[in-house]
Amino acid sequence: MTTDVPSRPKARAPRGFQDRRADALAVERKILAAVSRVYETYGFELLETGALEYADALGKFLPDADRPNEGVFALQDDDDQWMALRYDLTAPLARFVAEQSDSLPKPFRRYAFGPVWRNEKPGPGRYREFLQCDADTIGSDRPEADAEIIAMAVEGYGAAGLPPSAFTLRINNRKLLNGLLTAAGVGDSGQKLAVLRAVDKLDRLGATGVAALLGAGRKDESGAFTKGAGIASAAIDSVLAFVEAARETRIATLDRLAQVIGGSIEGDEGLAELSRIDDALTRLGVADDRAVFDPSIVRGLEYYTGAVFEAELSLQTPGDHGEPVRFGSIGGGGRYDDLVARFTGQRMPATGFSFGVSRLAAALAASGGGLEKARGPVVILALDGALMGEYFALAGELRACGVAAEVYLGSSGMRAQMKYADRRLSPAAVIMGGDEMAAGTVTIKDLDLGRSLAGAVTDNQTWRDDRPGQITVPRAEWLARVRRIVETAA
RNA sequence: GCCGCCUUAGCUCAGUUGGUUAGAGCGCUAGAUUGUGGAUCUAGAGGUCCUCGGUUCGAGCCCGAGAGGUGGUACCA
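Output (structure tokens, whole complex):
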């Protein structure tokens, strides 16, 4: 073997994972703080569970039981037990409640936030690691619990900075369609699932596309064929009448639903629940344009048993090439009365909502335009190695007042140091070299002021002579001057 | 998972029928300017032409396979 070039690792983040810098993180942190505050005012307590769960605690809901590693990131512990990174915050909550049931007040109300991981194909705005922020009420089967979750979600989006016109909460109840299908003679659970998937595509394919998927099947433009649910044509008609029952107000939609649902015990139950949700929402001050009943809302999760919610971003944001980008769902949830019973065997009704924090942050960032960049610290220029002690003393004085400051620690000259401060978006640079030291002064440059004056300067000589935004003050005054500059910059 | 398109410098992209040492703009580093951000001029650094294999005297360019990206579609706890 000849001597090879040493093989170096390629520096790259795994696909579907992203590095995020201060600007992006600041947006997320603001959202989390705002939403957490809303949850706490409603009486929810914070809970944190670990990133890993035993796979069997999550596994029942994997899409394909034959491939337990599909969909989640799984690994085997040294005792051979399979563990998996959590894919949402609901399954870990169900495990926690089942495990700690005796010591918890019931109903138990908790909120939680943190990253979740999904091992699937990433896409634009779709990552394999992202943040969720959930609130759940466990141990109450009152529809008012659902209503409160919805009201909280609406309030949370507002607190996060979304204008009311930018999103809508859509509400449905699984029991309606289930009851309708049973009444129409569709009992097979595989068929019911196929119907749900078809209905989910209403906004994209329209009524005729959905009708095809409910019946024999549908061929799309690329020629790919999707097998249909294969239900009878009378049943197709009632399903279509059902999904198009949405009206202007929640009450009007309820009236219309009562007509098309055709009387089944389960359907009537669903209607009664929605009616009580409407009452409660009205009392909680959630208007008809903020939260609507929409029978076409499905949600993918099989574990939902009753009411389901979905928050949709209606805000249109221009993409990189000017075309509008639709972000779609920015959160969702629903009632899952059987999830805890998987562990305990005892029914434990529950309902919750999950905020898609990363999606929402991306949407806000894309639409915000004038999103402010993170400001850097005051930079103390390091002009003379013998004065480093002085520089650190200056930085210390600023820090003691709560002003972010740093001494330049690179080895470049003054020009590069100014560029450094500029790139960090520093409010000010502090210059103390031999001249200032001898005169007992400090030179301070207001970088924002200099930036705004720079446009008017045309030739280099003026630029250098004027030194825009720069002042030299006695040593005794420097701290007050810098602090004033920092305050106006912020 | 399936189908289409794409992959050349940090970024956006040129690159002639297959022919010497692969280019530009922006960005970056530095000088012009003893100690000053912008503008201007100058210089410099930076490349596995996605990877592997094949055809050829010769491949960034042609052929095959794979990877990654992207747009649909399916799935989405």
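Chain A has a mean pLDDT of 86.
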